[in-house]
Amino acid sequence: MLAKLAELEAEHAKAVAGGGEKYVARHHERGRLMPRERIELLVDEGSAFLELSPLAGWGSDFTVGASVVTGIGVVEGVECMITANDPSVKGGASNPWTVKKLFRAAQIAEENGLPTISLVESGGADLPTQKEIFIPGGRLFRDLTRSSAAKLPTVALVFGNSTAGGAYVPGMSDYTVMVKEQAKVFLGGPPLVKMATGEESDDESLGGAEMHARTSGLADYLAEDERDAIRIGRRIVARLNWRKAVPEPAGWAEPDADPDALLDLVPADLKEPFDPREVIAHLVDGVSAGNGQVFDEFKPLYGTSLVTGWARIHGRPVGVLANAQGVLFSEEAQKATQFVQLANQTDTPLLFLHNTTGYMVGKEYEQGGIIKHGSMMINAISNSTVPHLTVIMGASYGAGNYGMNGRAYDPRFLFTWPSAKSAVMGPAQLAGVLSIVARAAAEGRGQEYDEEADAGMRAFVEQSVEEQSLPFFLSGMLYDDGVIDPRDTRTILGICLSVIENKPFAGTDRFGVFRP
Questions:
Q1: C-alpha span between 172 and 192 (Å, rounded)
Q2: What does the pLDDT average to over 154-177?
């Protein structure tokens, strides 16, 4: 696990490096801050910043991180969604992964009722890939206006360029701050205006901060420099009169088990089972919190390859579903269905800890109703209305990914450990299925099967599926909200459970039809 974490740190370093030393140095020489430096000044001193999707675009032709930083930080005691363009990467231009990353940030802000602060310095769309950005990209501005309509304030701090469609970020935000002699906001810059109308103009008269503060009225505040803009932004948030929907818990105790021991719990070979109760013991509040047992297990003797039960994390109640031996049978599916209904009855958020190879196959299990029982579990999770949090610890294959609340089932947050793997099935199984199908097709045609070609095909498929099921690849495609150090899991879950309390939530008693 330490080796995997070293690899993760190296990939995160690529995102932090932005456009590289040359462009970062040039930006600093101009007296400007980098996005994470701006965020550090914006958030409350000593508070955590939960960065989201830092590996976006990994494995693509674009810089890791997708030229934007997104995450949740506390500003004047208020949990906010923060987005910050990275001007060291092609001037902060948005590529297809940037747009997807910002969509995810907006979704999290909407679902959890968070104000949004946009730290703007972008040259607009990456023109060579405009066909993948222009049409869907309009949703970015739609999301800002819908946030405002939902009484979720939006604040734009403009440090540099905000041109073309990007001009609508400050235009559609509730509050806009522009930095004097740095911010430039216009639909069309001087070259475009010259081409379109023949008019000669300069940056300042066309879209400078002072012009927008004194003439157009687009700027609500004119900042002397970047630090002044951040100070003004903090004062705006301080005046929002923000109140959370759920009061803070009275207190909690640290886990009775040492969080560092999490590194030893997940085997390198995911075929080797491990006991998720040990993981749970490192994540949930200890007994000294005064809440009785650390983990009150539900149905411990039934459907034993799925562990379910009640606990608290940082004083907040959760229902936990964790895979033990990997495979889900009919008993596990029925147990999960009942547990999800109970959590909805008591308005309790759910935490899913994945290590599953999927639902059991075979004649005995098909005849026993594995399809209808698996469907029942997926039905319950699909229609559950309490917040869901998901952590993929190990395997997450097949419909087990769906039943354990994978990305398609809209968990409020989903994180993976470096040990995670996710695909339609394991690499060896997938390659084997293709081999069996190809062999049967050859026999049906009366042809001799090429064993050498088959071995090559299987090796190629196994390698490809293995690569595409690894966490960096999946995180690069934004199928999670980040690959995390297992030792940080409790802290991150605590932040997420606090964040979801910004908006009221309640369970449901309305589920789809359960087939008997």
A1: 23
A2: 92
